[in-house]
Amino acid sequence: MLRAWTSLTLNTLTNIQWKTTLFDHLASLHYPFLKKRHLGDIQSRFSSLDTIRSTFTNSIVSGIIDSIMTIGLLIMLTLYGGWLTWVVVGFTLCYAIMRFATYRFYRRVAEEQVIKGARSSSHFMESLYGISTIKALNLKERRSQHWLNINIEACNAGIKQTRFDMMFGGINTFITTIDQVAVLWLGAIMVIDNNMTLGMFMAFNAYRGQFSQRASSLIDLCMQLRMLSLHNERLSEIVFSEPEQELPAREVFSADSGAKLEVKNLCYQYDPFSQPIFSNLNITVEPGESVALIGPSGVGKTTLLKVMCGLLSPTSGDVLADNLDITKIGLNNYRHGTACVLQEDRLFSGSLIDNISGFEDNADINFVMECARRCNIHDEIMKMPMGYETIVGELGLGISGGQKQRILIARALYRKPSILFMDEATSHLDLKNESVINQSISALSITRIIVAHRPSTIASADRVIDLSQTKNLAPA
Questions:
Q1: Which CATH number fits domain 2-239: 3.90.226.10, 3.40.50.300, 1.20.1560.10, 1.20.1260.10?
Q2: What CA–CA distances, in Å, run from 86 to 77, 78, 188, 208?
Q3: Residue 291 pLDDT
Q4: Using CA atoms, how far apart are residues 304 and 112, in angstroms rounded to an integer?
Q5: Calpha distance 65→210 (Å, rounded)
Q6: CATH superfamily of this structure's domain 261-473
Q7: Among 438, 245, 259, which residue's Cα sits nearest to residue 337?
Q8: What is the largest CA-CA distance in the chain?
Q9: Residue 248 and residue 307 in contact, taking contact as beta carbons nearer than 8 Å
Q10: What does the domain layout of the chain look like in residue ranges?
Q11: What is the mean pLDDT of each run of 10 residues along the chain (476 residues)?
Protein backbone atom coordinates (compact mmCIF):
# COMPACT_ATOMS: atom_id res chain seq x y z
CA MET A 1 0.00 0.00 0.00
CA LEU A 2 2.89 2.37 0.81
CA ARG A 3 4.44 1.66 -2.58
CA ALA A 4 1.14 2.34 -4.37
CA TRP A 5 0.56 5.58 -2.45
CA THR A 6 4.13 6.78 -3.11
CA SER A 7 3.76 6.00 -6.80
CA LEU A 8 0.40 7.82 -6.96
CA THR A 9 1.78 10.93 -5.23
CA LEU A 10 4.88 11.05 -7.41
CA ASN A 11 2.78 10.46 -10.53
CA THR A 12 0.36 13.26 -9.70
CA LEU A 13 3.04 15.82 -8.81
CA THR A 14 5.16 15.16 -11.89
CA ASN A 15 2.07 15.12 -14.11
CA ILE A 16 1.01 18.59 -12.98
CA GLN A 17 4.49 20.09 -12.91
CA TRP A 18 5.74 18.68 -16.23
CA LYS A 19 2.58 19.46 -18.17
CA THR A 20 2.32 22.98 -16.77
CA THR A 21 5.95 23.70 -17.58
CA LEU A 22 5.66 22.27 -21.09
CA PHE A 23 2.42 24.13 -21.82
CA ASP A 24 3.92 27.43 -20.61
CA HIS A 25 6.92 26.82 -22.86
CA LEU A 26 4.69 25.87 -25.79
CA ALA A 27 2.62 29.04 -25.38
CA SER A 28 5.86 31.07 -25.28
CA LEU A 29 7.14 29.78 -28.62
CA HIS A 30 7.20 32.01 -31.65
CA TYR A 31 3.96 32.29 -33.60
CA PRO A 32 5.33 30.74 -36.87
CA PHE A 33 6.39 27.57 -35.01
CA LEU A 34 2.77 26.81 -34.08
CA LYS A 35 1.23 27.93 -37.37
CA LYS A 36 3.43 25.58 -39.41
CA ARG A 37 2.34 22.46 -37.52
CA HIS A 38 -0.82 20.39 -37.42
CA LEU A 39 -2.80 20.41 -34.20
CA GLY A 40 -2.78 16.62 -34.05
CA ASP A 41 1.00 16.52 -34.36
CA ILE A 42 1.45 19.04 -31.52
CA GLN A 43 -1.05 17.12 -29.39
CA SER A 44 0.77 13.84 -30.12
CA ARG A 45 4.12 15.35 -29.14
CA PHE A 46 2.53 16.72 -25.98
CA SER A 47 1.15 13.24 -25.21
CA SER A 48 4.68 11.82 -25.39
CA LEU A 49 5.17 13.49 -22.03
CA ASP A 50 2.67 11.01 -20.51
CA THR A 51 4.72 8.07 -21.78
CA ILE A 52 7.94 9.49 -20.35
CA ARG A 53 6.29 10.36 -17.04
CA SER A 54 4.62 6.96 -16.73
CA THR A 55 7.90 5.17 -17.38
CA PHE A 56 9.80 7.16 -14.79
CA THR A 57 7.15 7.20 -12.06
CA ASN A 58 5.83 3.65 -12.43
CA SER A 59 8.33 1.46 -14.25
CA ILE A 60 11.44 2.87 -12.58
CA VAL A 61 10.17 1.89 -9.13
CA SER A 62 9.50 -1.65 -10.34
CA GLY A 63 12.86 -1.65 -12.13
CA ILE A 64 14.76 -0.79 -8.96
CA ILE A 65 12.99 -3.59 -7.09
CA ASP A 66 13.63 -6.04 -9.95
CA SER A 67 17.33 -5.07 -10.05
CA ILE A 68 17.76 -5.72 -6.33
CA MET A 69 15.84 -9.00 -6.55
CA THR A 70 17.80 -10.12 -9.63
CA ILE A 71 21.15 -9.58 -7.91
CA GLY A 72 19.95 -11.33 -4.75
CA LEU A 73 18.53 -14.28 -6.70
CA LEU A 74 21.73 -14.57 -8.75
CA ILE A 75 23.72 -14.87 -5.53
CA MET A 76 21.35 -17.55 -4.21
CA LEU A 77 21.53 -19.46 -7.51
CA THR A 78 25.33 -19.42 -7.35
CA LEU A 79 25.32 -20.67 -3.75
CA TYR A 80 22.93 -23.53 -4.49
CA GLY A 81 23.75 -24.49 -8.08
CA GLY A 82 27.34 -23.50 -8.79
CA TRP A 83 28.09 -23.78 -12.51
CA LEU A 84 24.41 -24.59 -13.23
CA THR A 85 23.73 -20.88 -12.64
CA TRP A 86 25.53 -20.05 -15.90
CA VAL A 87 23.02 -22.15 -17.82
CA VAL A 88 20.19 -19.98 -16.46
CA VAL A 89 22.17 -16.80 -17.15
CA GLY A 90 22.94 -18.00 -20.68
CA PHE A 91 19.26 -18.46 -21.58
CA THR A 92 18.47 -15.06 -20.08
CA LEU A 93 21.20 -13.49 -22.23
CA CYS A 94 19.64 -15.10 -25.30
CA TYR A 95 16.42 -13.17 -24.65
CA ALA A 96 18.36 -9.96 -23.98
CA ILE A 97 20.37 -10.29 -27.21
CA MET A 98 17.19 -10.95 -29.20
CA ARG A 99 15.50 -7.83 -27.77
CA PHE A 100 18.44 -5.52 -28.36
CA ALA A 101 19.10 -6.93 -31.84
CA THR A 102 15.54 -6.09 -32.96
CA TYR A 103 15.46 -2.68 -31.24
CA ARG A 104 15.95 -0.52 -34.34
CA PHE A 105 13.23 -2.27 -36.31
CA TYR A 106 10.86 -2.17 -33.33
CA ARG A 107 11.58 1.54 -32.90
CA ARG A 108 10.69 2.24 -36.54
CA VAL A 109 7.41 0.39 -36.10
CA ALA A 110 6.59 2.35 -32.93
CA GLU A 111 7.49 5.66 -34.60
CA GLU A 112 5.28 4.80 -37.57
CA GLN A 113 2.38 4.12 -35.20
CA VAL A 114 2.86 7.44 -33.38
CA ILE A 115 3.11 9.49 -36.59
CA LYS A 116 0.08 7.87 -38.22
CA GLY A 117 -1.89 8.27 -35.01
CA ALA A 118 -1.03 11.98 -35.07
CA ARG A 119 -2.21 12.24 -38.69
CA SER A 120 -5.50 10.61 -37.74
CA SER A 121 -5.98 13.05 -34.85
CA SER A 122 -5.16 16.03 -37.08
CA HIS A 123 -7.68 14.96 -39.70
CA PHE A 124 -10.34 14.39 -37.03
CA MET A 125 -9.88 17.83 -35.42
CA GLU A 126 -9.65 19.52 -38.80
CA SER A 127 -12.97 17.96 -39.80
CA LEU A 128 -14.63 19.14 -36.59
CA TYR A 129 -13.36 22.70 -37.09
CA GLY A 130 -14.64 22.69 -40.66
CA ILE A 131 -17.89 20.76 -40.12
CA SER A 132 -20.00 23.59 -41.56
CA THR A 133 -17.96 23.53 -44.78
CA ILE A 134 -18.20 19.74 -44.95
CA LYS A 135 -21.99 19.86 -44.63
CA ALA A 136 -22.50 22.84 -46.94
CA LEU A 137 -20.39 21.32 -49.74
CA ASN A 138 -21.65 17.78 -49.08
CA LEU A 139 -18.13 16.50 -48.47
CA LYS A 140 -19.11 14.10 -45.69
CA GLU A 141 -18.51 10.90 -47.65
CA ARG A 142 -15.12 12.05 -48.96
CA ARG A 143 -13.91 13.23 -45.58
CA SER A 144 -15.24 10.08 -43.90
CA GLN A 145 -13.51 7.87 -46.45
CA HIS A 146 -10.27 9.81 -46.10
CA TRP A 147 -10.42 9.60 -42.31
CA LEU A 148 -11.22 5.88 -42.53
CA ASN A 149 -8.13 5.28 -44.67
CA ILE A 150 -5.91 7.27 -42.31
CA ASN A 151 -7.40 5.54 -39.27
CA ILE A 152 -6.90 2.11 -40.83
CA GLU A 153 -3.24 2.97 -41.46
CA ALA A 154 -2.87 4.00 -37.81
CA CYS A 155 -4.61 0.81 -36.63
CA ASN A 156 -2.42 -1.36 -38.88
CA ALA A 157 0.69 0.31 -37.47
CA GLY A 158 -0.62 -0.36 -33.96
CA ILE A 159 -1.34 -4.00 -34.85
CA LYS A 160 2.19 -4.36 -36.21
CA GLN A 161 3.63 -3.10 -32.93
CA THR A 162 1.32 -5.38 -30.93
CA ARG A 163 2.50 -8.35 -33.02
CA PHE A 164 6.06 -7.58 -32.01
CA ASP A 165 5.06 -7.43 -28.35
CA MET A 166 3.25 -10.77 -28.69
CA MET A 167 6.24 -12.26 -30.49
CA PHE A 168 8.61 -11.13 -27.76
CA GLY A 169 6.29 -12.58 -25.13
CA GLY A 170 6.12 -15.89 -26.99
CA ILE A 171 9.89 -16.06 -27.46
CA ASN A 172 10.43 -15.30 -23.78
CA THR A 173 8.03 -18.10 -22.82
CA PHE A 174 9.81 -20.50 -25.21
CA ILE A 175 13.26 -19.60 -23.84
CA THR A 176 11.99 -19.96 -20.26
CA THR A 177 10.56 -23.41 -21.09
CA ILE A 178 13.82 -24.59 -22.68
CA ASP A 179 15.69 -23.17 -19.70
CA GLN A 180 13.46 -25.10 -17.31
CA VAL A 181 13.90 -28.36 -19.23
CA ALA A 182 17.68 -27.93 -19.40
CA VAL A 183 17.92 -27.16 -15.69
CA LEU A 184 15.75 -30.18 -14.80
CA TRP A 185 17.90 -32.46 -16.94
CA LEU A 186 21.26 -31.17 -15.76
CA GLY A 187 20.06 -30.86 -12.16
CA ALA A 188 18.81 -34.45 -12.15
CA ILE A 189 22.25 -35.60 -13.31
CA MET A 190 23.91 -33.61 -10.52
CA VAL A 191 21.54 -35.11 -7.93
CA ILE A 192 22.22 -38.65 -9.21
CA ASP A 193 25.98 -37.98 -9.08
CA ASN A 194 25.58 -36.67 -5.50
CA ASN A 195 26.89 -33.23 -6.55
CA MET A 196 23.68 -31.65 -5.27
CA THR A 197 21.05 -32.71 -2.79
CA LEU A 198 17.42 -32.97 -3.82
CA GLY A 199 16.51 -30.13 -1.45
CA MET A 200 19.17 -27.86 -2.92
CA PHE A 201 17.93 -28.66 -6.42
CA MET A 202 14.32 -27.86 -5.49
CA ALA A 203 15.43 -24.56 -3.95
CA PHE A 204 17.61 -23.80 -7.00
CA ASN A 205 14.71 -24.44 -9.37
CA ALA A 206 12.42 -22.15 -7.34
CA TYR A 207 15.02 -19.37 -7.41
CA ARG A 208 15.55 -19.98 -11.13
CA GLY A 209 11.87 -19.26 -11.89
CA GLN A 210 11.99 -16.03 -9.88
CA PHE A 211 15.29 -15.00 -11.50
CA SER A 212 14.02 -15.59 -15.05
CA GLN A 213 10.86 -13.59 -14.37
CA ARG A 214 12.69 -10.65 -12.74
CA ALA A 215 15.47 -10.61 -15.33
CA SER A 216 12.98 -10.64 -18.23
CA SER A 217 11.08 -7.74 -16.66
CA LEU A 218 14.35 -5.86 -16.25
CA ILE A 219 15.27 -6.44 -19.91
CA ASP A 220 11.83 -5.23 -21.01
CA LEU A 221 12.29 -2.12 -18.85
CA CYS A 222 15.66 -1.43 -20.47
CA MET A 223 13.92 -1.58 -23.85
CA GLN A 224 11.24 0.80 -22.59
CA LEU A 225 13.95 3.23 -21.50
CA ARG A 226 15.61 2.99 -24.90
CA MET A 227 12.25 3.54 -26.58
CA LEU A 228 11.94 6.78 -24.63
CA SER A 229 14.44 8.22 -27.12
CA LEU A 230 11.59 8.21 -29.65
CA HIS A 231 9.39 10.31 -27.40
CA ASN A 232 12.33 12.45 -26.31
CA GLU A 233 13.05 13.30 -29.94
CA ARG A 234 9.43 14.23 -30.57
CA LEU A 235 9.32 16.39 -27.46
CA SER A 236 12.72 17.94 -28.14
CA GLU A 237 11.36 19.90 -31.11
CA ILE A 238 9.10 21.73 -28.67
CA VAL A 239 11.35 21.77 -25.60
CA PHE A 240 14.50 22.99 -27.37
CA SER A 241 12.76 25.54 -29.58
CA GLU A 242 13.72 29.06 -28.57
CA PRO A 243 10.82 30.85 -26.85
CA GLU A 244 10.07 34.53 -27.18
CA GLN A 245 12.26 36.55 -24.88
CA GLU A 246 10.39 38.10 -21.98
CA LEU A 247 11.85 41.09 -20.19
CA PRO A 248 10.96 42.40 -16.72
CA ALA A 249 7.54 44.03 -16.66
CA ARG A 250 7.48 47.77 -17.27
CA GLU A 251 5.04 50.40 -18.49
CA VAL A 252 5.81 51.27 -22.10
CA PHE A 253 2.85 53.44 -23.10
CA SER A 254 1.11 56.31 -21.38
CA ALA A 255 -2.32 55.43 -20.05
CA ASP A 256 -5.43 56.49 -21.99
CA SER A 257 -3.54 57.80 -25.01
CA GLY A 258 -2.38 56.60 -28.39
CA ALA A 259 1.21 55.67 -29.16
CA LYS A 260 3.45 56.45 -32.09
CA LEU A 261 4.28 53.46 -34.30
CA GLU A 262 7.06 53.29 -36.87
CA VAL A 263 8.56 50.66 -39.13
CA LYS A 264 12.00 51.36 -40.57
CA ASN A 265 13.57 49.58 -43.54
CA LEU A 266 11.26 46.66 -42.88
CA CYS A 267 11.71 43.44 -44.85
CA TYR A 268 9.95 40.11 -44.43
CA GLN A 269 10.20 36.77 -46.23
CA TYR A 270 8.77 33.44 -45.13
CA ASP A 271 12.03 31.55 -45.69
CA PRO A 272 15.46 32.18 -47.23
CA PHE A 273 14.34 30.72 -50.56
CA SER A 274 11.17 32.78 -51.09
CA GLN A 275 10.74 36.28 -52.44
CA PRO A 276 10.33 39.08 -49.85
CA ILE A 277 6.70 39.95 -49.14
CA PHE A 278 7.87 43.54 -48.71
CA SER A 279 11.28 45.18 -48.41
CA ASN A 280 12.71 48.54 -47.30
CA LEU A 281 9.30 49.53 -46.00
CA ASN A 282 9.06 52.73 -43.94
CA ILE A 283 5.81 53.78 -42.27
CA THR A 284 5.13 56.29 -39.52
CA VAL A 285 1.81 56.39 -37.65
CA GLU A 286 1.33 59.29 -35.27
CA PRO A 287 -0.33 58.89 -31.84
CA GLY A 288 -4.11 58.68 -32.15
CA GLU A 289 -3.97 58.37 -35.93
CA SER A 290 -6.09 55.84 -37.81
CA VAL A 291 -4.36 54.26 -40.81
CA ALA A 292 -5.92 51.84 -43.29
CA LEU A 293 -3.67 49.36 -45.11
CA ILE A 294 -5.08 48.51 -48.52
CA GLY A 295 -3.98 46.67 -51.62
CA PRO A 296 -4.81 43.55 -53.62
CA SER A 297 -4.91 40.18 -51.89
CA GLY A 298 -1.45 38.72 -51.38
CA VAL A 299 0.36 42.06 -51.24
CA GLY A 300 1.25 41.51 -47.57
CA LYS A 301 -1.28 43.53 -45.57
CA THR A 302 -1.97 40.86 -42.95
CA THR A 303 1.71 39.88 -42.80
CA LEU A 304 2.70 43.51 -42.18
CA LEU A 305 0.05 43.80 -39.46
CA LYS A 306 1.39 40.68 -37.72
CA VAL A 307 4.93 42.04 -37.91
CA MET A 308 3.73 45.32 -36.41
CA CYS A 309 1.97 43.62 -33.52
CA GLY A 310 4.95 41.36 -32.81
CA LEU A 311 3.55 38.00 -33.92
CA LEU A 312 6.08 37.73 -36.75
CA SER A 313 9.73 38.75 -36.58
CA PRO A 314 10.93 40.83 -39.55
CA THR A 315 13.75 39.50 -41.69
CA SER A 316 15.39 42.90 -41.32
CA GLY A 317 14.39 46.34 -40.15
CA ASP A 318 12.84 47.64 -36.95
CA VAL A 319 9.42 48.21 -35.42
CA LEU A 320 9.38 51.16 -33.02
CA ALA A 321 6.69 52.08 -30.52
CA ASP A 322 7.08 55.57 -29.09
CA ASN A 323 10.64 55.52 -30.53
CA LEU A 324 11.46 52.29 -28.65
CA ASP A 325 12.40 49.05 -30.44
CA ILE A 326 9.70 46.55 -29.48
CA THR A 327 12.23 43.69 -29.22
CA LYS A 328 14.39 45.66 -26.78
CA ILE A 329 11.52 46.65 -24.49
CA GLY A 330 10.21 43.07 -24.61
CA LEU A 331 7.29 41.77 -26.64
CA ASN A 332 5.51 40.98 -23.38
CA ASN A 333 5.65 44.66 -22.39
CA TYR A 334 4.75 45.83 -25.89
CA ARG A 335 1.71 43.57 -26.08
CA HIS A 336 0.57 44.78 -22.68
CA GLY A 337 -0.30 48.08 -24.36
CA THR A 338 -1.65 46.74 -27.66
CA ALA A 339 -4.65 44.72 -28.79
CA CYS A 340 -5.37 42.78 -31.97
CA VAL A 341 -8.47 41.60 -33.77
CA LEU A 342 -7.25 39.17 -36.42
CA GLN A 343 -9.11 37.19 -39.07
CA GLU A 344 -8.40 33.88 -37.30
CA ASP A 345 -9.40 35.15 -33.86
CA ARG A 346 -11.90 33.02 -31.98
CA LEU A 347 -13.89 32.92 -28.80
CA PHE A 348 -13.24 30.31 -26.14
CA SER A 349 -15.59 28.08 -24.18
CA GLY A 350 -16.98 30.14 -21.33
CA SER A 351 -19.35 33.00 -20.62
CA LEU A 352 -19.48 36.22 -22.60
CA ILE A 353 -18.07 38.15 -19.66
CA ASP A 354 -15.15 35.70 -19.54
CA ASN A 355 -14.45 36.16 -23.23
CA ILE A 356 -14.69 39.95 -23.21
CA SER A 357 -12.51 40.27 -20.10
CA GLY A 358 -9.99 37.73 -21.36
CA PHE A 359 -10.91 35.36 -18.49
CA GLU A 360 -9.71 37.91 -15.94
CA ASP A 361 -10.12 36.66 -12.36
CA ASN A 362 -11.80 39.81 -11.08
CA ALA A 363 -13.40 41.17 -14.21
CA ASP A 364 -14.80 44.71 -14.08
CA ILE A 365 -18.38 44.03 -15.16
CA ASN A 366 -19.10 47.73 -15.60
CA PHE A 367 -16.16 48.17 -17.96
CA VAL A 368 -17.14 44.96 -19.78
CA MET A 369 -20.55 46.49 -20.42
CA GLU A 370 -18.98 49.77 -21.52
CA CYS A 371 -16.82 47.96 -24.07
CA ALA A 372 -19.88 46.05 -25.28
CA ARG A 373 -21.80 49.32 -25.68
CA ARG A 374 -18.98 50.82 -27.73
CA CYS A 375 -19.27 47.80 -30.03
CA ASN A 376 -23.08 48.06 -30.16
CA ILE A 377 -23.52 44.53 -28.78
CA HIS A 378 -24.70 45.32 -25.22
CA ASP A 379 -28.43 45.41 -26.02
CA GLU A 380 -28.27 42.11 -27.91
CA ILE A 381 -26.43 40.46 -25.02
CA MET A 382 -29.01 41.70 -22.50
CA LYS A 383 -31.77 40.12 -24.62
CA MET A 384 -30.14 36.72 -24.21
CA PRO A 385 -31.67 34.58 -21.40
CA MET A 386 -28.48 34.63 -19.29
CA GLY A 387 -27.15 38.01 -20.40
CA TYR A 388 -23.40 38.30 -19.93
CA GLU A 389 -23.36 34.85 -18.30
CA THR A 390 -24.45 33.27 -21.60
CA ILE A 391 -22.13 30.37 -22.35
CA VAL A 392 -20.41 30.46 -25.72
CA GLY A 393 -19.59 27.10 -27.25
CA GLU A 394 -16.17 26.10 -28.51
CA LEU A 395 -15.05 28.21 -31.49
CA GLY A 396 -17.77 30.74 -30.65
CA LEU A 397 -20.68 28.56 -31.72
CA GLY A 398 -24.13 29.78 -30.72
CA ILE A 399 -23.75 33.37 -31.92
CA SER A 400 -23.76 34.98 -35.36
CA GLY A 401 -20.66 36.05 -37.26
CA GLY A 402 -21.45 39.72 -36.73
CA GLN A 403 -21.99 39.24 -33.00
CA LYS A 404 -18.73 37.32 -32.75
CA GLN A 405 -16.79 40.14 -34.43
CA ARG A 406 -18.26 42.76 -32.12
CA ILE A 407 -17.43 40.64 -29.05
CA LEU A 408 -13.87 40.24 -30.33
CA ILE A 409 -13.55 44.01 -30.73
CA ALA A 410 -15.02 44.50 -27.23
CA ARG A 411 -12.39 42.06 -25.91
CA ALA A 412 -9.67 44.15 -27.55
CA LEU A 413 -11.06 47.40 -26.09
CA TYR A 414 -11.21 45.86 -22.60
CA ARG A 415 -7.42 45.78 -22.62
CA LYS A 416 -7.35 49.62 -22.85
CA PRO A 417 -4.76 49.51 -25.64
CA SER A 418 -2.64 52.39 -26.87
CA ILE A 419 -2.43 50.72 -30.29
CA LEU A 420 -5.25 48.69 -31.84
CA PHE A 421 -4.63 46.36 -34.79
CA MET A 422 -7.68 45.27 -36.80
CA ASP A 423 -7.56 42.83 -39.71
CA GLU A 424 -10.92 42.80 -41.51
CA ALA A 425 -12.43 43.07 -38.03
CA THR A 426 -15.78 44.48 -39.27
CA SER A 427 -16.16 42.49 -42.48
CA HIS A 428 -19.32 40.72 -41.22
CA LEU A 429 -21.05 43.85 -39.95
CA ASP A 430 -23.70 45.98 -41.57
CA LEU A 431 -22.89 49.63 -42.28
CA LYS A 432 -24.81 50.91 -39.25
CA ASN A 433 -22.99 48.72 -36.73
CA GLU A 434 -19.67 49.41 -38.42
CA SER A 435 -20.27 53.17 -38.28
CA VAL A 436 -21.18 53.04 -34.57
CA ILE A 437 -18.03 51.06 -33.75
CA ASN A 438 -15.78 53.35 -35.79
CA GLN A 439 -17.17 56.45 -34.07
CA SER A 440 -16.83 54.87 -30.62
CA ILE A 441 -13.23 53.81 -31.17
CA SER A 442 -12.33 57.18 -32.74
CA ALA A 443 -13.50 58.88 -29.55
CA LEU A 444 -10.89 56.93 -27.56
CA SER A 445 -7.94 58.64 -29.31
CA ILE A 446 -5.99 55.40 -29.63
CA THR A 447 -3.72 54.58 -32.55
CA ARG A 448 -5.37 52.26 -35.05
CA ILE A 449 -3.88 50.14 -37.84
CA ILE A 450 -6.65 48.70 -40.02
CA VAL A 451 -6.50 46.16 -42.82
CA ALA A 452 -9.61 46.50 -44.95
CA HIS A 453 -11.16 46.08 -48.38
CA ARG A 454 -14.59 47.61 -47.71
CA PRO A 455 -14.89 51.25 -48.85
CA SER A 456 -16.79 52.22 -45.69
CA THR A 457 -14.00 50.86 -43.47
CA ILE A 458 -11.32 52.56 -45.55
CA ALA A 459 -13.24 55.86 -45.47
CA SER A 460 -13.24 55.82 -41.65
CA ALA A 461 -9.43 56.04 -41.54
CA ASP A 462 -7.47 59.29 -41.26
CA ARG A 463 -4.96 58.07 -43.82
CA VAL A 464 -4.83 55.30 -46.41
CA ILE A 465 -1.68 53.38 -47.35
CA ASP A 466 -1.67 51.31 -50.53
CA LEU A 467 1.04 48.68 -50.05
CA SER A 468 1.11 47.89 -53.75
CA GLN A 469 2.30 51.40 -54.63
CA THR A 470 4.25 52.95 -51.79
CA LYS A 471 7.30 52.09 -49.71
CA ASN A 472 8.13 55.21 -47.71
CA LEU A 473 5.10 56.52 -45.90
CA ALA A 474 4.85 59.27 -43.34
CA PRO A 475 1.89 61.35 -42.27
CA ALA A 476 1.12 64.30 -44.51
A1: 1.20.1560.10
A2: 9, 9, 16, 11
A3: 93
A4: 39
A5: 13
A6: P-loop containing nucleotide triphosphate hydrolases (3.40.50.300)
A7: 259
A8: 111
A9: no
A10: 2-239, 261-473
A11: 70 84 89 84 86 80 85 88 86 90 89 88 85 86 90 90 89 88 86 84 87 89 87 88 86 82 91 84 92 89 92 92 91 92 89 92 92 93 91 72 92 94 89 89 90 87 85 47
Amino acid letter, residue 178:
I
Handedness of CA 118, 122, 128, 129 (dihedral sign): positive
In what order do the strands lie in the sheet containing 338-341?
338-341, 419-423, 447-451, 290-294, 463-466
The Cα 55–Cα 10 span in angstroms is: 12
Amino acid letter, 398: G
Taking CB atoms within 8 Å and a gap of at least 24, the contacts of 152-160 are 153/116, 153/119, 153/120, 154/113, 154/116, 154/117, 154/119, 154/120, 157/109, 157/112, 157/113, 157/116, 157/117, 158/113, 158/117, 160/109, 160/112, 160/113
pLDDT of residue 476: 41
pLDDT of residue 407: 94
Task: Give the type of residue at 54.
Answer: S
Q: Is 36 helix (H, G, I), strand (E, B) or coil?
A: coil
Q: Look at residue 474 in the predicted model and tell me its pLDDT.
A: 47
